[in-house]
């Protein structure tokens, strides 16, 4: 009977944690970041023109008596910061464990699935006249015939899904280390990192102190890989409290509560806002000028100046530094070696309270795990 229950619990965990395969196949890569689309158009553009169209055909503006150099693309820093903040919340260390460690001889390994709410449909009015950042900032669907991606993602996911494998190992003196490696569904992105925590009441199982709940303090780091367009790392510091409730038949129910402070670090690489225009080919470069290092152009505009307009359309976004406060509510179940759990992490305060440039709603992350506890 015990073996049947353990088997059933393991199968149930795998069923809960398995990603929806049909959606993954249908939208594979659709949520890959495209920050090069987060562009602020220059003022006083002629009707029907964008900075991208100016870069593709600067001669048309020269013929109209205008200087194409006056209309470069500029980074939409507000949209970039909002998108990175929401993505950083999703990949943040979730402190998904009770306050009591596995113990010196203990070890736990589990599969974890997390689902984080984002704000995919902020209107242009809500974002200061700009298009929704998740629509522009992600790749969108691929045309099955031309293999080209759309210029805007018309249907970005409303949840960021992360599937990871996690391992925890207890150390002496109430310490525990953990490592995690996961992938973000519908993208080519990976998330990895580790945690270190200390259980203050570890070892007290009887007497007056044994009646108190377990308390731990810890920290973790998660970083994003799979894109060369920006770097994203999230640091989390947490305090947790839990108390195991012994059930019959070698089982435990472990509710937990906690607080977490997360700090999101986002740094942009150089982004080409006109990827369909080759600046060097347009210029017809003869190599760098020996005195300035700037490319020397063979190709000229109708007014006789160098056709070097597109070189001004590469930029970096402002650094992103976001601070947020999260509450953690969790429930774990252990039956012999079977380990199951669920947790919700959510913003305690409005994100814009400490970060005035943010416009998104409060976020939450719902996590599930299933694995083995030795």
Describe the structure.
- There is one protein chain.
- The chain is of the alpha+beta class.
- The chain folds into two domains: 262 residues, Lipocalin, CATH 2.40.128; 82 residues, no CATH class.
- 16% of the residues lie in helices and 37% in strands.
- The chain has seven helices and 17 strands.
- A ten-stranded antiparallel β-barrel has the order 3-4-5-6-7-8-10-15-16-17. A two-stranded antiparallel ribbon has the order 1-2. Strands 11-14 form a two-stranded antiparallel sheet.
- The chain starts with a helix and ends with a strand.
- 39% of the residues are buried.
Name the features:
374 residues, alpha+beta, Lipocalin, 2 domains, two-stranded antiparallel ribbon, 7 helices, 17 strands, 16% helix, elongated
Total of domains: 2
Mean pLDDT: 87
Give helix and strand order, one letter per element, not per position.
HHEHHEHEHEEEEEEEEHEEEEEE
Q: Kindly report how far apart the N and C termini lie.
A: 20 Å
For the biggest sheet, the summary is:
10 strands, antiparallel, barrel
Number of continuous helical runs: 7
CATH top level of the largest domain is Mainly Beta
In the CATH hierarchy, the third-tier topology of the largest domain is known as Lipocalin
Low-confidence stretches: 6-16, 18-28
Using the alpha-carbon principal axes, give the shape.
elongated
CATH architecture of the largest domain: Beta Barrel
- β-strand percent reads 35-45%
What is the radius of gyration? 26 Å
Structural class: alpha+beta
Q: How many strand elements?
A: 17
Question: What fraction, in percent, of the residue positions are helical?
Answer: 10-25%
Strand order of the largest sheet: 3-4-5-6-7-8-10-15-16-17
């Amino acid at each position: 009977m015990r073996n049947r229950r353990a088997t059933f619990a393991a199968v149930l965990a795998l069923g809960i944690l398995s990603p929806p395969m049909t959606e993954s196949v249908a939208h594979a890569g659709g949520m890959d970041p495209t920050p090069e689309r987060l562009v602020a158009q220059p003022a006083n553009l002629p009707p029907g023109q964008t900075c991208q169209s100016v870069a593709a055909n600067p001669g048309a503006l020269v013929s109209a008596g205008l200087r194409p150099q006056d209309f470069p693309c500029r980074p939409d820093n507000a949209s970039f910061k909002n998108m990175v903040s929401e993505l950083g919340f999703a990949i943040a260390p979730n402190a998904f464990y009770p306050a009591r460690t596995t113990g010196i001889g203990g070890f736990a390994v589990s599969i974890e699935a997390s689902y984080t709410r984002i704000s995919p449909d902020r209107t242009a009015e809500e974002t200061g006249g700009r298009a929704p950042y998740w629509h522009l900032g992600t790749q969108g669907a691929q045309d099955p015939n031309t293999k080209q991606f759309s210029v805007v993602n018309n249907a970005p996911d409303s949840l960021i899904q992360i599937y990871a494998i996690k391992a925890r190992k207890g150390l002496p003196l109430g310490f525990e280390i953990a490592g995690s490696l996961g992938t973000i569904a519908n993208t080519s992105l990976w998330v990895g990192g580790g945690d270190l925590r200390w259980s203050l009441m570890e070892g007290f199982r009887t007497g007056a102190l044994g009646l108190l709940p377990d308390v731990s303090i810890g920290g973790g780091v998660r970083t994003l890989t799979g894109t060369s367009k920006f770097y994203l790392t999230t640091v989390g510091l947490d305090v947790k409290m839990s108390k195991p409730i012994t059930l019959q038949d070698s089982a435990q129910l472990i509710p937990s509560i906690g607080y977490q402070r997360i700090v999101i670090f986002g740094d942009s690489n150089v982004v080409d806002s006109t990827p369909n225009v080759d600046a060097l080919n347009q210029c017809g470069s003869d190599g760098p000028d020996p005195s300035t290092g700037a490319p020397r152009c063979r190709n000229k505009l109708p007014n006789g100046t160098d056709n070097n307009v597109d070189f001004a359309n590469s930029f970096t976004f402002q650094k992103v530094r976001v601070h947020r406060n999260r509450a953690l509510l969790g429930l774990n179940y252990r039956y012999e070696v079977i380990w199951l759990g669920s947790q919700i992490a959510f913003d305690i305060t409005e994100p814009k309270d400490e970060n005035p440039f943010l416009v998104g709603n409060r976020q939450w992350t719902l996590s599930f795990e299933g694995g083995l506890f030795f």
